[in-house]
Amino acid sequence: MKFVITKNILENVIASMQPFLEKKDSSAITSHVYLETKDNKLIVKATDYEIGLETTIENISDIEDGKTTVNGNNLLGIIKRLKNENITLEADSNNLIIKQNKSVFKLPTYDANEYPNINKYENLKELSISTINFINSIKKITPSIDNNNPKFELNGALLDIKSQKINFVSTDTRRLALSYLENISNDEMQLIIPKKAIIEIQKLFLDNAKIYCDQTNLIVSNNNTKFFTKLINGKFPDYERIIPSTLKYSFPLPKNILVESIKLVTSLFSNIKITFNPKYIIFESLDEDSVATTQIDIDINIPNEFYLAVNAKYLLDFLSTSNSEKIKIGFNESNLPFYLEDDKFYTVVMPIVLEK
């Protein structure tokens, strides 16, 4: 195998492979990237068995067909140090030789025939979902996906395809986020996509791509990139019962003023108390060692004063992904979950219960 490629192109591709490599065991073949030249193209793959990426590059020259593998982290370390000029890569029986001008590097290789096959999932069903809508929906619920929860199904996002709607759902047990799209023609099903996959999809795809799945795998692909992930095998909690069926109070609030007020009182401590009065709203920090408070004068259609205590991060996560100038807030009692809503996106938050 041999080819010549521009430094920037190769660096960008090998950098994009890093999240998909085995990090703990550098002797494992899954710590390697797979390189193959054929049909005047370079194919680069990386996978840790659970998640994988394949990219095809056409901007190469002086090609000799072949394939090899090489440690992805070490290869990236070398490429970063080279000048922004063409690089020659050539594989012999045991090494990958990297050349630029009078600089030469050798890295050990493994048998490419032993590399895991991430192309074996060919009989998956295509989902009829716009990639842009898919990415916008998962972006909104990403902050609410849990990390390292013993209930492993909570370490991912639920794609719940119903007859009329497609719900994207996540929860870290303190809040539940849901974004939805209209379902045109997809069959009803439920899939749990791992958080790592959710994050990587947002990095990789900005335009039109196709989405394929079965009950155990999900693939997103366009002309030059193919992303693969295994799905989480589990049962997601019955999220619909957590959503309040009725609300005692519900009213719109200006997003920018909310964000400004919340950030003002959370510079030192994230837990806050928000007091709603018919004529104003008071924001105050719950930090016992310092005082931070601010007030906005605004008419609210409620008969009595009411308060919510909450981790401000949950509010800011919602507000940062909402698109409207005004959001809707709804609540029943101070110690019950309250509701934040924007266009086709809402979050249900558990409040902090304060001692009276």
Automatic annotation (TrEMBL):
Residues 241-351 form the DNA polymerase III beta sliding clamp C-terminal domain. Transmembrane segments: none annotated. The lineage of its organism: Bacteria, Pseudomonadati, Campylobacterota, Epsilonproteobacteria, Campylobacterales. Gene3D superfamilies: DNA Polymerase III, subunit A, domain 2 (3.10.150.10). Its main location: cytoplasm. InterPro entries: DNA_clamp_sf, DNA_polIII_beta, DNA_polIII_beta_C, DNA_polIII_beta_cen, DNA_polIII_beta_N. Coiled coil: none annotated. Residues 1-118 form the DNA polymerase III beta sliding clamp N-terminal domain. It comes from Aliarcobacter cibarius. It is found in: Cytoplasm. This is Beta sliding clamp. Keywords: Cytoplasm, DNA replication, DNA-binding, DNA-directed DNA polymerase, Nucleotidyltransferase, Transferase.
